[in-house]
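Task: sequence in, structure out. Protein: Carbohydrate ABC transporter permease.
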Amino acid sequence: MNRPIRPSRILVHLALILYTVIALGPILLILLNAFKTRRAIFADPLGFPDARTFTTIGFDQVFAKSDFGLYFLNSLTVTVVSLGLIVLIGAMAAWALTEYRFRGNTIIGLYLAIGIMVPIRLGSVSILRMMVELNLVNTLTALILVYVAQGLPLAVLILGEFIQQIPRELRDAARCDGVSEYRIFGSIILPLIQPAIATVAVFTMVPIWNDLWFPLILSPGDGKQTITLGVQQFIGQYVTDWNAVLASLTLAIAPILVLYLLFSRYLVRGLTAGAVK
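Result:
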């Protein structure tokens, strides 16, 4: 016998559908208009490109008037290196805070929690002053350091929760066999928290790739610009080349969409792990 669908469940699904439309709407709008003429973009922004309105002039201008390959490489380097350091350092810190009890353990956990609650952009002036003193302005290193500091608190929190769910008997059995702590961490802990690592990777990767604020103040020089900053050259005070802007945004969105599709299975597993014990 089929049970009646509760109104609250219908409302939840409607809310999720609405959120999906709001989240995917801008992406679909960019993809649709990236292949249309300027006149068609303003005449029918929601329409699909046809034989009369289809054009790739925006992509031609992006590759002809900008060093898009360099911008892409800079963004890829910053994102990959930052993500690798966040996952590695975050996993080690989460392992230390959950496995070992020492003086200051609670204080460190509270300090990391504050790092989640307080936006790092509030310290932009101090960060810029520090990077100037370290002679790191207009370098990718400055961006990597900031993004690692930005992503570590959340990474430690998520990975720590997953490590706590790993049965302690596994670690104790390995210690009884004479396995070192480094081997336990690398051979037992890391493989078991792969869904959590994928969750951290997705949540960390998107803000880093899409960030404009810190590239604008820390690496605005030629040769060090990221994709989001490089796109700004097509946006003028009086005239904006919308074909080039939409084309460059399409090229910038594509890697994120591909990586999200690749990690989506692990992301869902990571988000739902621990919900049912």
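Residues 7-56 form one domain.
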